[in-house]
Amino acid sequence: MASLTQIEVLLPEFRAYATAICASADDAEDLVQDAIERALRTENRPTQLDALRPWMFRVIRNLHYDELRKRRVRREYLAAEKRFSDEAGTSDAARDILIRMALEKLPADMREVLCLVDIMGLKYAEAADVMNVANGTVMSRISRARKALLALVDGTDVRDGVESGRK
User: Fold this and answer.
1) Is the pTM above the cut of 0.85?
2) What is the pLDDT of residues 113-131, one digit of tens each?
3) Which end is more exposed in the chain, N or C (fewer Cβ atoms within 10 Å of the end residue's Cβ)?
């Protein structure tokens, strides 16, 4: 097993590499700390210094790209959330609360497809991959979910595609 001493010997190189790929020195330092923590928790890390060095560089690189992905997803989520609010009309807080409450009343499968397609902005094919279903299934689920959400917001009750709120 690679010892803490071996990691300490390579620490300046890890910091230099992390600084080269990160936007700020603070991010680089956090990245190195996360990589070292991961290395110390892993039982099958390389035992030789020559093998440990490139392995740690890969760990640093992978952690960095994972963080970039997380940030991108957060940005996309916030943009989709803003778009969802903007499409609902003016920034009416009462309407927003009503929509959120209606969304919570929907079954989990309807909430999932609405979240993926309407909130997160995934294409039908992407949502189908996430949910492990066919594209047509996503299209029918999103249609039913939108109708059910609209019915809840408008005050009508739609169950299994049949309106029961009107006579």
Assistant:
1) no
2) 998 888 888 899 989 998 9
3) C
